[in-house]
């Protein structure tokens, strides 16, 4: 009975040619997880204190039930945390979901660029880096799983 040997980390690194983009892929995973935690916090604030996000004086910009919006933020935050964890550990499903979530986040931030220009441009920049790192170099993170 023959056993398959798992190749050691050095052989995998040599064959898959690791680059410094692995760090950017890890950064993308950490950024997604951090954004998810912030979304969860913002969501719970919206659920338990709806007046916190209500614009002063003029009323809301759009008719929005802030409790529902809060639960949407909590759900999106959980997805981002789980996906960020998967990206860090080189899961293929996380690469695909991470690109979709980053693209959705980029569209949302672009929609609010007139309200929060600096934050939106920073978020768009991170989203573009995450999308590029995951689509072009996401496969390299799988090598780290075997180290």
From TrEMBL:
Keywords: Membrane, Transmembrane, Transmembrane helix. This is DUF7144 domain-containing protein. It comes from Virgisporangium aurantiacum. Signal peptide: none annotated. The lineage of its organism: Bacteria, Bacillati, Actinomycetota, Actinomycetes, Micromonosporales. Residues 24-139 form the DUF7144 domain. The chain crosses the membrane at residues 21-48, 68-88, 93-112, 118-136. It holds the Pfam family DUF7144. InterPro entries: DUF7144. The keyword Transport does not apply.
């Amino acid at each position: 009975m023959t056993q398959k040997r798992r190749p050691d980390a050095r052989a995998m690194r040599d064959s898959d040619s690791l680059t410094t983009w692995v760090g950017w892929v890890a950064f993308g995973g950490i950024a997604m997880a951090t954004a998810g935690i912030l979304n969860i916090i913002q969501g719970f604030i919206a659920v338990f204190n709806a007046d916190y996000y209500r614009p002063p004086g003029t009323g809301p910009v759009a008719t929005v039930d802030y409790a529902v919006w809060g639960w949407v933020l909590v759900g999106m935050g959980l997805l981002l945390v789980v996906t960020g964890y998967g990206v860090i550990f080189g899961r293929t499903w996380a690469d695909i979901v991470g690109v979709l979530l980053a693209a959705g986040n980029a569209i949302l931030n672009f929609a609010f660029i007139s309200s929060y220009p600096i934050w939106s441009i920073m978020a768009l920049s991170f989203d573009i880096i995450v999308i590029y790192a995951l689509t072009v170099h996401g496969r390299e993170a799988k090598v780290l799983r075997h180290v």
